[in-house]
Write a structure and sequence with these properties.
There is one protein chain. It is globular, with a radius of gyration of 23 Å. It has 473 residues and is an alpha/beta fold. The strands form four sheets. A five-stranded parallel β-sheet has the order 3-2-1-4-15, with helices on one face. Strands 6-13-7-8-9 form a five-stranded parallel β-sheet. The chain contains 18 helices and 15 strands. Helix 14 (292-307) links the parallel strand 7 and strand 8 (314-317). It folds into three domains: 12-134, Alpha-helical ferredoxin (Fumarate Reductase Iron-sulfur Protein, Chain B, domain 2, Orthogonal Bundle); 145-239 and 403-472, 3-Layer(bba) Sandwich (FAD/NAD(P)-binding domain); 241-400, 3-Layer(bba) Sandwich (FAD/NAD(P)-binding domain). Helix content is 35%, strand content 16%.
């Protein structure tokens, strides 16, 4: 069996000097060679590992034959964002983990698994370059209109599905540009903005509208949208940051990852003062967490330090071991290559500040791993008799997000679960309010782009069924 084909990457020393995309993607010959490693299994388990059920076997077979546009069209039947998902999906936990070449009982895919995500990215980029996303004309409208609240992956995917069915989606976005977490949460070195723009434009060009700078719940009420539209989809995400609950979190230069990445990714803080969004660039930065957001924050911090001519010094603090980290293995590897340091089995206890109220250090304790918890990982047990001191003058807390409460708090009619997420019917994604549907992180908890899209596709089907019943009554 041939070894996997790896696309070229920027040298780590060059990476941290800016926000250029790290991975270049496959050339045509590389894509064909990697695709030919696929065994074309009779029972392709990889499809079962995909949350939207892409026919992976089929699209790879077309890449094997050099039929790249056909491969793109096959992916688009199930996935509205192939160029995006090929870059950011945690494939090693999903389709690649299910690949027969990956072996059994692994927490994530082995290096031998087919590079499905890179092949998807190749096909997606090829389709955007050579077919304009196959969205050259607007589809005919039938007069039905649906309000989409939030223009992240769930909202835009739902809009695309509805537009394809002749329904006009109108997306309400709280910020000035669409994209949601794709735009404010993921740095350009992982997801270039021109790729994001093209993917969104391809979907909306089929028949849709974006109304920016509208915070539904504040600028207008949900009930107003219910009166104006035939149905409503809520894809407002999980935009409320979680905190550690330790002393000193209120100190200056302690950021939530949500604020930190939004300032850089959306508000161009890394180009201050050209853009009027300041951000503190610490000489010694600490990032707390072990997910993809923590890796993004750490790698952004490195680049900000390099831009200021500082010697990069960023430390990720995580209370379990490297094995338990939920981040993509590729993002972890890239962070390590770029010079991010890691302190594992470390539990923060207190941020320490100076006389001006700015953070100057982090007091922590060592941990040991105990029994497995609900996540299936071994629980970290703090060891108070083993203290640690970490010097820092800036910190980012990246331990997850909770549901966005702006809308739900002001709409008590919406039924929520114990975690504050909107309760939905698992098949139709209908909420407790007639004609209102929800999907993405606000309904399923913080998840991946492809998982949000899976819920959005379900919701679109539920909305179309609701509209058909409404029209026949």
């Amino acid at each position: 069996m041939k070894e996997p084909i790896h696309p070229s990457e920027l040298d780590p020393k060059e990476r941290i000097t800016g926000f250029k995309e790290v991975i270049s993607g496959y050339r045509e010959d590389q894509a064909v060679e990697e695709a030919r490693r696929c065994l074309q299994c009779k029972n392709p388990l990889c499809i079962q590992g995909c949350p939207v059920g892409i026919d992976i076997k089929k699209f790879i077979a077309h890449i094997q034959r050099g039929k790249f546009l056909r491969a793109y069209e096959i992916i688009k039947e199930k996935n509205r964002f192939p160029s995006i998902c090929g870059r950011v999906c945690p494939a090693e936990y999903q389709c690649r983990r299910a690949c027969v070449l990956s072996g059994k009982h692994a927490p994530y895919a082995s290096a031998r698994a087919i590079q499905i995500h890179f092949l998807e990215r190749f096909a997606g980029d090829y389709g955007l370059r050579h077919a304009g996303g196959r969205a050259s004309s607007r589809l005919p409208r039938d007069g039905r209109r649906v309000a989409i609240v939030g223009s992240g992956p769930a909202g835009v995917c739902c809009a695309g599905e509805l537009a394809r069915a002749g329904v006009t989606p109108v997306l309400y976005e709280a910020l000035h540009l669409p994209g949601g977490v794709l735009r404010y949460g993921i740095p350009e070195f992982r997801l270039p903005r021109d790729v994001l723009r093209q993917e969104i434009d391809t979907i909306l060009s089929a028949g849709g509208e974006v109304i920016p700078n509208v915070l539904v719940g504040r600028t207008c009420a949900l009930d107003e949208l219910r009166e104006q539209y035939d149905a409503v989809f809520l894809g407002v995400g999980a935009g409320t940051p979680s905190f550690l609950g330790i002393p000193g979190e209120q100190l200056g230069n302690v950021y939530s990852a949500n604020e930190y990445l939004t300032r850089v990714n959306l508000m161009q803080a890394h180009h201050f003062p050209e853009y009027h969004t300041p951000i503190h660039v610490p000489a010694r930065a600490v990032v707390i967490g072990g997910g993809n957001t923590a890796m993004d924050a750490a790698r952004v911090a490195l680049r900000l330090q390099a831009a200021q001519g500082m010697k990069p010094e960023v430390t990720v603090v995580y209370r379990r071991t490297e094995e338990e980290m939920p981040c993509r293995r590729l993002e972890l590897l890239h962070a390590q290559e770029e010079g991010v340091k890691f302190k594992f089995l470390t539990q923060p206890v207190e941020f320490q500040g100076d006389a001006q109220g700015r953070v100057r250090g982090l007091r922590a304790v060592e941990c040991r791993l105990g029994e497995k918890d609900a996540s299936g990982r071994r629980r970290p047990v703090p060891q108070p008799d083993r203290p640690l001191q970490i010097e820092c003058d800036g910190a980012v807390i990246a331990i997850g997000l909770r549901p966005n409460q702006v809308l739900t708090r002001l709409t008590p009619q919406l039924k929520l679960n114990s975690r504050g997420e909107i309760e939905v019917d698992s098949q139709t994604m209908a909420t407790s309010l007639a004609g209102v549907f929800a999907g993405g992180d606000i309904a399923g908890g913080e998840g991946t782009v492809i998982e949000a899209m899976g819920m959005a596709k379900k919701a679109a089907r539920g909305i179309l069924h609701f509209l058909s019943g409404k029209n026949s009554s």
